[in-house]
Amino acid sequence: MKDKIFGVLQRVGRSFMLPIAILPVAGLLLGLGSSFTNTTTIETYGLQWLLGDKTILHALLVIMNAVGSAIFDNLPLIFAVGVAIGMAKKEKEVSALSAVIAYFVMNVSINAMLKISGKILADGSIAKDVLDGTITSVCGIQSLQMGVFGGIIVGLGVAALHNRFYKIELPNALSFFGGTRFVPIISTVAYLFVGILMYFIWPTVQNGIYALGGVVTGTGYFGTLLFGIIKRALIPFGLHHVFYMPFWQTAVGGTMEVAGHMVEGGQNIFFAQLADSANIAHFSADATRYFSGEFIFMIFGLPGAALAMYKCAKPEKKKQAGSLLLSATLACMFTGITEPLEFSFLFVAPALFAVQVVLEGSAYMIAHILNIAVGLTFSGGLLDFFLFGILQGNAKTSWLLVIPVGIVYFLLYYFIFSFLIKKFDFKTPGREDDDTETKLYTKADVNERKAAKDVKNFDEKAGSVADELSQTISRGLGGKANISDVDCCATRLRITVIDPEKVNDVLLKSTGASGVVHKGQGVQIIYGPRVTVIKSDLEDYLASVTEEHFEDDAVENNTAGADEVKNENAASATDSKTEDSSTASDKAQEAADTKEPTSTVIISSPMTGIAADLSTAPDEAFAGKMMGDGAVVTPEEGVVVAPEDGTVLFVFDTKHALGFTTDSGIGMIIHVGIDTVKLEGKGFDVQVEAGCHVNKGDVLMKLDLDYLKANAPSVTTPVICTELKDNQKIRLITDGPIKAGEPLYAVDTYEK
Is the four-CA dihedral 472, 475, 477, 483 of positive or negative sign? Predict the structure, then answer.
């Protein structure tokens, strides 16, 4: 159950990446547009000639602000669609359409309930007894303010309905509405009632949030701390606006006489003082306590968290993670838009968000204690920090104190996040589940084409071999009903099953798999580069068979598989029948082993060093021959040469491994060291490119052995054949000292 829940949470986290990707750009547009179109800012600095109304820059900034606002205003809908797409197993476009429909249906239902109850009047206005901010316009529909949380409710619910019903078969009279057409229908019906339910549930949540506001103002520094914690904790629910706006714009945030006028609300007080700055010795920190602390964690703290996530990313994913985190960090620092960074870890690692809430809440209190009074228009980024902190002078704002406090916060975020991510293996950007070694094949286009051809020609007796192979795989996984999700990486079919006990390894290996790996409810079946074709065929097969027919097959097969296992276990006991059978089988195998091979291909060592059997490799996958068979060489010289005449198929991005095929047709991988992918290419000097034809002994790469020995777990190098046929066997020739170019092992081919 734990593994299943964790797997679902990971999928949910990944589904957020699609809508999150647009947030940094939207944040930059909105931040720039809102900061430089603010009337007070323009008038204070006398920039009417450059940024004033009817200037070209003003028009451009207004458009930028509008575009950024459009994205943030509709973020719930964007999340509804993004989550639905991310969580749907197939026919994702149907789930996207259904999510849009469900989102509108839910909000229209809420709107109808608000009208029926009299909270929205006949003329469209909101009743006076309704709390400000609890009702808002959602895509032109007056509805409850549910924020991003409303979109997530829709996305997850629609995805669940989609995965359950997108293949439903209805009676003949209603067959037109079956399958994918049924998903938007059932989503509409379901979310009509969800909307009604939200009408009763959500106001209670909103009222509780608003009531907490009264506690903040009367409790001094502690109240500021409480304000900061509550505000940041409400970010995932999209309710932080409901909470903080009264403090910014109403008497809830305090009152003060400025220039002879009574001003209400923290933000209003600051801008009133800014307009009268000539008569103000120091801006009121009691007014700015509701936002000055944001500069500490937005400019310094969260970038520290981003650096921690980048440093903790897997080496092969650092480039991708770095791109995402850098854009999100820039949006946070310059404009104060924190959602891109927060949402990158919020749902996959809630513990990190809990830490963040405490640290960010403390930042508000620290700013209040230190009398920091930096104002803002939109959010606590560098733009507002420069305009309303630095330009106003330290005497009025105490902005200089933000820097040392910010540096401390940067370090706190970095070290705390780094520790927790590594300690609990949180799947932050760049740490998602993936088998690094399998990526060795991602550039082997030649191998993939060959694999596709092999699958196609594997057996043509029954007319559709892919179906037969898929059927056997499905049976080995315990039946269609036991298969929860189908995916693959470059060499492994990755399956999530409901009951791992129903998986039949014997049967799965009979499909040509070189190994089966179990991880909780996850099953990895190693096929090599042809796995993408196998995955597609399996998905098509599962979609085409009926539940009843397939389950019958599965039951029959599992029974057979169980019998096989029983026979194998009994063979180790004293059962005479099984012993006889086993003895006969052994004799047959011995007879086969005595046969002379019909052909032999000698593979020479690509390195000078110590040769040994592959089973001695200090890595489970290599030692278990899951990637192929061969040998290992522990190098004593830093040169890797071509083992035979052949072609370089690919060079891995991190330079630690390359694919090679001999002119005789033997596909190989030369993987220098263990876990050397983490070195990101350091210590490797590759001399060839993919597609190059080389002769035996030509230099493929040069190694800095001292660096590799110091930074890698092992320099022992697997030299493996990845695509051996059933009638081919590896025979180790040299076990011990060996020079580059000397025979390492033989590939013997026998009669079938």
Answer: positive
Closest listed residue to residue 633, CA positions, set 674, 576, 596? 674
Q: How large is the average pLDDT for residues 603-629?
A: 86
CB 603 within 8 A of CB 747: yes
Q: Distance between CA atoms of 52 and 435, rounded to whole angstroms? A: 56
| 12 touches 84 (CB < 8 A) | no
Around 164, how many Cα atoms within 13 Å sit in the side-chain half-sphere? Answer: 9
Q: Which of 514, 511, 491 is nearest to 614 (CA)?
A: 514
Choose among 426, 456, 618: nearest CA to 537.
456
DSSP state of 145: -
**Shortest CA distance to 707 belongs to which of 671, 681, 687?**
681
Given its phi and psi angles, is residue 586 left (phi above 0), alpha (psi -120 to 50 degrees) or beta?
Answer: alpha
Angle at 229 between CA 228 and CA 232, to 5 degrees: 80
Of the residues 312, 332, 488, 489, only one is catalytic, namely: 489
- pLDDT higher than threshold 90 for residue 49: no
Domains of the chain: 218-433 (no CATH), 436-566 (3.30.1360.60), 599-749 (2.70.70.10)
CA 116 vs. chain centroid, Å, equals 43
**Burial class of residue 90 (count of CB atoms within 10 Å of its CB; 0-12, 13-18, 19+):** middle
What single-letter DSSP state applies at residue 171?
-
CA distance to 359, 427, 487, 545, per residue, from 497 (Å): 40, 21, 12, 18
Q: d(Cα 516, Cα 135) in Å, to the nearest integer?
A: 54
Q: With left for phi above 0 and alpha for psi between -120 and 50, is residue 414 left, alpha or beta? A: alpha
Q: Helix or strand or coil: residue 471?
A: helix
Instruction: Give whole-number Cα distances, 562 to 239, 502, 505, in Å.
Output: 55, 10, 10
Tokens of 102: 């469900």
What dihedral do alpha carbons 84, 209, 24, 335 form, nearest 10°?
A: 170
- Nearest-10 crossing angle of helices 266-275, 240-249: 40
Are 500 and 459 in contact, with CB atoms under 8 Å apart?
Answer: no
Q: Which amino acid, one-letter code, is at 85?
A: I
Q: 309: Cβ–Cβ under 8 A, 6 or more apart, which residues?
A: 321, 325, 344, 345, 417, 421, 428, 429, 430
Q: Which two tokens stand for residue 46?
A: 């006398």
Q: Is 139 a residue of the active site?
A: no
Q: What is the rounded distance in angstroms from the CA atom of residue 224 to the CA atom of residue 242? A: 17
Is 721 designated active site? Answer: no
Q: For residue 433, what pLDDT is reported?
A: 66
Choosing from 671, 692, 693, 721, the catalytic residue is 671
| Distances in whole angstroms, Cα of residue 275 to Cα of each of 278, 392, 394, 512 | 8, 11, 17, 77
* List of residues 6+ apart from 237 with CB closer than 8 A: 146, 147, 148, 149, 205
Tens-place pLDDT, residues 174-205 = 777 888 889 999 999 999 999 999 999 988 87
pTM equals 0.45
Question: What pLDDT digit, counting tens, does each position of 682-713 carry?
Answer: 999 999 988 889 999 999 999 999 999 999 88
Phi-psi region of 282 (alpha: psi -120 to 50; beta: other; left: phi over 0): beta
Strand order through the sheet with 515-519: 483-488, 492-497, 522-526, 515-519
- Tokens 């693959």 sit on residue: 488
Distances (CA, A) of 375 to 244, 261, 383, 399: 15, 19, 11, 10
Buried b (16+ CB within 10 A) or exposed e, 205-234: bbeebbeebeebbeeeeebbbbbbbbbbbb
